């Protein structure tokens, strides 16, 4: 398995692949991933220019460990195959497929990636895939999409196009996204891949943004697509385990391992009942803390 499949992705920041001011140094804001967009942020008559600028950015800029995902144009456009060739030739880490509805969409993109990896001498399997779900049909087919390829590290809800398809709109309350969010996180977990929430486009409403991120964090998402560096500290604050939770998780892991030796199955840690069912969750908190660079313990 490509080890990058499971990497930390709390923040996946969109930027227009054609804008020098955005692509030159987005790593200074420390998002976990950047998503260089060739799709909706790029005007129809600028697609070639954006692809050209994308290729040179990928080749020449050191993004300092920040994952480089490229959002290609939809499979119903004349652009997507050339988008993949330029992104793979440039050495991107992953392709984001917009408006994914069927497992065949993933397979078609995978086949083009494979050809491009061969043509440009990129190791087979290096380029990962993520799929954005942007329609009612995509939500219904989510599990089939999740299981379509070994290269697929995750799926993402894209609320703008999805609510248009549902014949509603983004309200800021999240009520219109409830079913899709629930469906996607369940499908992703069933397939053991990651799941990401949609962008929040009102940059003047940071309180609403925080509430939105708190909700999707509690629902089990791995992170969120974002559009602006000002959104990064809020997502990282919510998605990075707090020290008191890390310390508790350590105690749980150590106590479970110790009590197991002694033949004890259920016991109390800091007033809370603990048994083996809590082991994986505690381990996950520690792994997340390590990946986020905030782990100070000894496990
Ligand atoms: C529904 C969809 O399809 S979403 C996906 C497509 N949309 C996008 O890609 C939009 C990405 N975001 C942006 O382009 C911008 O954030 C905008 C247009 C929304 C707002 O732009 P601004 O008003 O300039 O934002 P703001 O004033 O907060 O910018 C502050 C700094 O952050 C930089 N910045 C803003 N957004 C980004 C970004 N997404 N990536 C990298 N840097 C960014 C700006 O260049 C600016 O840098 P500077 O101080 O060196 O000049
Ligand atoms: O992926 C996203 O969140 C942005 C997007 O394309 C949409 O909302 O339609
Ligand atoms: Mg969209």
From TrEMBL:
<keyword id="KW-0456">Lyase</keyword>
<protein>
    <submittedName>
        <fullName>Citrate lyase subunit beta</fullName>
    </submittedName>
</protein>
<dbReference type="GO" id="GO:0006107">
    <property type="term" value="P:oxaloacetate metabolic process"/>
</dbReference>
<keyword id="KW-0460">Magnesium</keyword>
<dbReference type="GO" id="GO:0000287">
    <property type="term" value="F:magnesium ion binding"/>
</dbReference>
<dbReference type="Pfam" id="PF03328">
    <property type="entry name" value="HpcH_HpaI"/>
</dbReference>
<dbReference type="InterPro" id="IPR040442">
    <property type="entry name" value="Pyrv_kinase-like_dom_sf"/>
</dbReference>
<feature type="binding site">
    <location>
        <position position="71"/>
    </location>
    <ligand>
        <name>substrate</name>
    </ligand>
</feature>
<feature type="binding site">
    <location>
        <position position="134"/>
    </location>
    <ligand>
        <name>Mg(2+)</name>
    </ligand>
</feature>
<dbReference type="InterPro" id="IPR005000">
    <property type="entry name" value="Aldolase/citrate-lyase_domain"/>
</dbReference>
<dbReference type="InterPro" id="IPR011206">
    <property type="entry name" value="Citrate_lyase_beta/mcl1/mcl2"/>
</dbReference>
<feature type="domain" description="HpcH/HpaI aldolase/citrate lyase">
    <location>
        <begin position="10"/>
        <end position="229"/>
    </location>
</feature>
<keyword id="KW-0479">Metal-binding</keyword>
<feature type="binding site">
    <location>
        <position position="134"/>
    </location>
    <ligand>
        <name>substrate</name>
    </ligand>
</feature>
<dbReference type="InterPro" id="IPR015813">
    <property type="entry name" value="Pyrv/PenolPyrv_kinase-like_dom"/>
</dbReference>
<dbReference type="GO" id="GO:0016829">
    <property type="term" value="F:lyase activity"/>
</dbReference>
<feature type="binding site">
    <location>
        <position position="161"/>
    </location>
    <ligand>
        <name>Mg(2+)</name>
    </ligand>
</feature>
């Amino acid at each position: 398995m490509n080890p990058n499949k499971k990497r930390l992705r709390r923040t996946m920041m969109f930027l227009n692949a054609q804008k020098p001011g955005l692509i030159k140094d987005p790593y200074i804001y420390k998002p976990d991933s950047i998503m260089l967009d060739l799709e909706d942020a790029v005007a129809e008559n600028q697609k070639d220019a954006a692809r050209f600028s994308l290729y040179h950015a990928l080749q020449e800029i050191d993004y300092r460990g920040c994952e480089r995902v490229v959002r290609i144009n939809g499979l119903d456009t004349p652009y997507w195959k050339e988008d993949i060739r330029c992104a793979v030739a440039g050495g991107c880490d992953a392709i984001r497929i917009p408006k994914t509805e069927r497992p065949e969409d993933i397979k078609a993109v995978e086949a083009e990636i494979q050809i491009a990896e061969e043509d440009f001498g990129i190791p087979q399997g290096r380029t990962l895939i993520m799929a954005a779900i942007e329609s009612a049909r995509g939500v219904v087919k989510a599990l089939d999409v999740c299981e379509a390829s070994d290269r697929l590290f995750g799926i993402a809800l894209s609320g703008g196009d999805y609510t248009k398809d549902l014949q509603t709109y983004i309200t800021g309350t999240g009520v219109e996204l409830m079913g899709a969010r629930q469906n996607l996180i369940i499908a992703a977990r069933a397939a053991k891949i990651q799941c990401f929430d949609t962008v929040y486009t009102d940059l003047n409403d940071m309180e609403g943004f925080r509430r939105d991120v708190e909700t999707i964090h509690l629902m089990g998402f791995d992170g969120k697509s974002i559009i602006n560096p000002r959104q990064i500290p809020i997502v990282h604050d919510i998605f990075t385990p707090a020290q008191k939770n890390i310390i508790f998780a350590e105690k749980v892991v150590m106590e479970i391992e110790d009590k197991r030796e002694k033949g004890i199955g259920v016991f109390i840690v800091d007033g809370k009942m603990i048994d083996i069912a809590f082991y994986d969750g505690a381990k996950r908190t520690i792994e997340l803390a390590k990946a986020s660079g905030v782990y100070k313990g000894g496990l």
